[in-house]
Fold:
Amino acid sequence: MAGTLYVVATPLGNLGDLSPRAADTLKQVAVVAAEDTRHTKPLLVHVGSDAELVSFHAHSTERSLERLLRLLGAGTDVALVTDAGTPTVSDPGAELVAAARNRGIVVVTIPGPTAVAAALAVSGLHADRYLFLGFLSRKGADRRRLMESIATSEWTVVLFEAPNRVAELLEDLAAACEGGADRVASVSREMTKVFEETRTGTLAELAVYYAEAPPRGEVTVVVSGTGKPRPVEIPIDPETRARALLAQGMTRKNVAEQIAEETKISRNAAYRLVNEL
Structure:
């Protein structure tokens, strides 16, 4: 009979936040798969667990994954933990969970702390609906695309960021959002730890503050939404658009090129359409 994979949420910092069920699970399983074994070892000592610690992180090899699957298949119960919070939420583990499910292995959640909910709770921003984007790409088209998503999001947006890049993130957000300098946000750091701090203000105010006083520790940024649904873009009808451009006196060649660019149909299709009109 196969073992069970337990996905166990661990404290963000304060060990008192570990649930009794999570502590019991860590004591009962034979193996704990951890993002950083050095970080998790004190937690196991704290709860009195003798489980074997194995490394499983974002850069683990296929062999590491197969080893855990073999253990589970042989009847060994395994707990998956991350350094802090809930595994798979912008943390490693989703690959293991998916592979275990594909093999018919039972996966059980042991819920608990998550930086997303903790930061939302103290932000003062609406949390009935929110968009979680994790860590943004540092540069390039993907970062611009996600910035656009944040700028136009009707709902509150939650982000993770490295402390040394928080000021840059806030500056970029202020520039990307319409009226972005005045968009309200909050920055939470070191949640549940000794130096826990949540600061709220406009993106412009927070950008200035953290440029002068870079934060330390884990950082979660919460940005208010627009409160308005995104405008629905009505697809351009190529034929209607082509007729309008021809009526303006444009050449068939120029019309075809513009239609291809505006509607994303192929150039050949655009030329055929224009010539048939």
Remarks:
- The mean pLDDT is 93.
- Residues 7 and 166 are 30 Å apart (CA to CA).
- The chain is about 40% helix and 20% strand.
